[in-house]
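seq as requested:
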Amino acid sequence: MLENGSAASGSRPENIRYNNCRAVLGLFCHTDRLSVHEITERFNLSKTATMNIINFLLSTGIIYLYGKGEPVGTSGKKPSLYALNPSYKYSVVAGIEGDYIVAELLDFRLNKINFYLHRAYDRSYKAFIEGASIAVKHVLDRAKLTGKDLYAIALYTGGIVDAKSGVLLRPITHSDWDNDLPVVRDLKSALDFDVPVYMDNVCRFGGYFELLKRPDNWNLTILSLFIDENGVGGSLIQNGTIARGKNGLIGEFGHITTNYTMAEKCKCGRYGCFETVVTGSRVVERARKALATAKTPSSAQHSIKRIGDLFAHADNGDAFARSQLDFVAEQFANMLYNMQIMYDPDMVIIQGLYASSGTYFKQKLSQAVNELSLYSIAKGLRLIFDEFDFREAVTIGASFYCREQFINSDSLFDMT
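struct tokens:
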């Protein structure tokens, strides 16, 4: 970070002020409160330059004077502390889930204010657009806010999304809908106020949350992998940016082929997809079929109702449960091997069911990944099992994404 007055050759002073101001605001977004001294030390700014930035941010209302801190040095003087203003602006995160639309209102510090669950009058696309508009207005009304108090709306859904154009290319979770639906355009038309609307796949927002949780990883390549009872998704984040690809296909990891011998058909119409092997319902179904013909008694004989039961039995040493999970770990390793070659990530974050998969499976997976590593190069791959509630991660991650777009907009930093 360059200090005001210490620009490299060719840099314009207004650009330096802009970049410094944006960097300081970014620090406020990740810190509870800051003093002028802490900011000058962090960015090697002069006290005058720092106070100019602080006064500008105070004038916008985006930060406020929090109070006094503990004395620093020998002067005994208590420094002023500043903090991000949670009520500066708000965001609404809305999700299309089954028969419902859920809308949640969050403040500028990403704290939840309220939520509303709206049931669409039918499963048509039109009903869901109208329902999303109703849900957004409802959470605003409850908080006595208007559209002018929002800085953005985030909309998440399953399926293949073109985030740049705001189009739902393939509504996989609502197969009766048409393809290429202009969701963002239609939602903006249904609202009686103008505000930026961002739409993306649910797993991308869930993956973006990891940048908020681990801000030191901003410049890394992070791959997230989410698995629940019936589906698989994920995200790829490179240098703080969500990678989507030309057609929004990055993240559709469930449809990468990992087993060419499986006879189970995927909902995409193909066979051998990773999704058909590792989702909770498929693992349990396969285990029950195997138990019916097993010759060796198992403690899991009458107690496999969900995949968590297999995790527990495996941790307790049950050979049958371990054999079932060994196969799953092998498929995971095949998938991660492909991802290492395609993306060469610094870390892979496991979300959803397998985040709480127990000691045996986690050790087995780590072992399998190391054994498949190309030329042993990727043996240092970091596997992180994030047990944070995924739906919470999606909501906060979506709001965080909106806030990043907002604070990086040029209009916010007009310091002239």
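DSSP finds twelve helices and 15 strands in the chain.
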